């Protein structure tokens, strides 16, 4: 289930590339609308409205989920923009950088202390951003925005859990897309006759409608996997997504000059450092020191 979740996310470039004529704004709006529609159906069928209403009555949970909604909307919007404008490589970079940024957020926001291996990984990651910036001639803002928005989304969900208010994926997605519904409808209204929903053929329309299931299904698979396997396994599996996105970008015709290979190579080296450090630390925690 964990592997299936990350594979689905990794194949998103092909899915959104097929919808590129819709543009990033329409794609984001329909994704919100149909995700909410499916969530409402499932909440009704599974009789979970009590959970949703309990979250909405709690000002802390409601506030954190509203901020999470903003973070995930930025993430979805920029990801869609990256795909429809031919910057899938930059999008994959964002998800490669995300674990490094998550570690950095732990320091900046949660006041966590990094181990030397983590500091080394973050340093190499920053060097990679410098190299890629020099290669592109601009800051890789799409990659950094994706990393920051998804890292912030995870941080907000972490804060919910720390407060003893862990929210299941279906309830969370229902509230988050509910928060985003009005802006999504306004965006569709502004687009007006430029909407492609009913003007690009039945396949195009069907793919837009399926944006709901393709958003919800991986989240459900992720939650199911996270409840059954160690966090370190989930941590290893998360690299499946950007690797598949990277391959997808090449298959979609994007180019990789030597200088960009160097930048990506530094990112991968940073992830190796981070992974090795995490595995060593877990082993130290699990294996008690011999006594006597």
Describe the structure.
- With 292 residues, this protein is mainly alpha-helical.
- It is 79% helix and 0% strand.
- The chain is built from 14 helices and no strands.
- It has helices at residues 2-10, 12-17, 23-45, 49-57, 59-84, 88-108, 116-136, 141-162, 169-191, 202-209, 211-226, 231-237, 240-251, 258-286.
- Helix 3 crosses helix 9 (169-191).
Secondary structure tally, helices? 14
Globally, the shape reads globular
Distance between the amino and carboxyl termini: 44 Å
Structural category is mainly alpha
Average of per-residue pLDDT values = 86
SSE diagram, text form:
Blueprint: H1 2-10, H2 12-17, H3 23-45, H4 49-57, H5 59-84, H6 88-108, H7 116-136, H8 141-162, H9 169-191, H10 202-209, H11 211-226, H12 231-237, H13 240-251, H14 258-286
Helix pairs in contact: 1-11, 1-13, 3-5, 3-9, 3-11, 4-9, 5-8, 5-9, 6-7, 6-8, 6-13, 6-14, 7-14
Short overview:
The chain has helices spanning 2-10, 12-17, 23-45, 49-57, 59-84, 88-108, 116-136, 141-162, 169-191, 202-209, 211-226, 231-237, 240-251, 258-286.
Attribute tags:
292 residues, mainly alpha, 79% helix, 0% strand, globular
């Amino acid at each position: 289930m964990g592997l299936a979740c990350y594979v689905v996310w990794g194949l998103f470039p092909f899915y959104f590339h097929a919808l590129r004529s819709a543009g990033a704004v329409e794609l984001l709006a329909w994704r919100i609308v149909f995700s909410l529609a499916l969530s409402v159906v499932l909440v009704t069928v599974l009789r979970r409205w009590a959970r949703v209403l309990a979250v909405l009555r709690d000002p802390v949970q409601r506030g954190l989920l509203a901020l999470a909604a903003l973070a995930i909307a930025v993430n979805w919007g920029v990801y869609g923009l990256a795909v429809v404008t031919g910057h899938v490589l930059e999008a994959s970079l964002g998800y490669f950088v995300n674990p490094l940024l998550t570690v950095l957020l732990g320091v900046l926001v949660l006041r966590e202390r990094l181990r030397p291996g983590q500091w080394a990984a973050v340093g190499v990651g920053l060097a990679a951003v410098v190299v890629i910036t020099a290669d592109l001639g601009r800051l890789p803002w799409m990659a950094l925005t994706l990393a920051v928005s998804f890292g912030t989304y995870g941080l907000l969900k972490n804060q919910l859990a720390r407060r003893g208010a862990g929210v299941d994926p279906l309830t969370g997605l229902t509230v988050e897309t509910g928060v985003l519904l009005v802006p999504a409808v306004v965006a569709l209204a502004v687009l007006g006759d430029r909407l492609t929903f009913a003007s690009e053929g039945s396949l195009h329309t069907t793919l837009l409608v399926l944006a709901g299931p393709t958003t919800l299904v991986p989240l459900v698979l992720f939650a199911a996997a996270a409840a059954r396997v160690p966090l370190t396994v989930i941590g290893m599996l998360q690299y499946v997504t950007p690797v598949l996105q990277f391959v997808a970008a090449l298959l979609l015709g994007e180019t990789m000059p030597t200088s960009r290979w160097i930048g990506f190579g530094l990112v991968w080296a940073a992830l190796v450092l981070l992974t090795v450090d995490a595995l060593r630390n877990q082993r130290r925690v699990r294996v008690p020191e011999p006594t006597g």
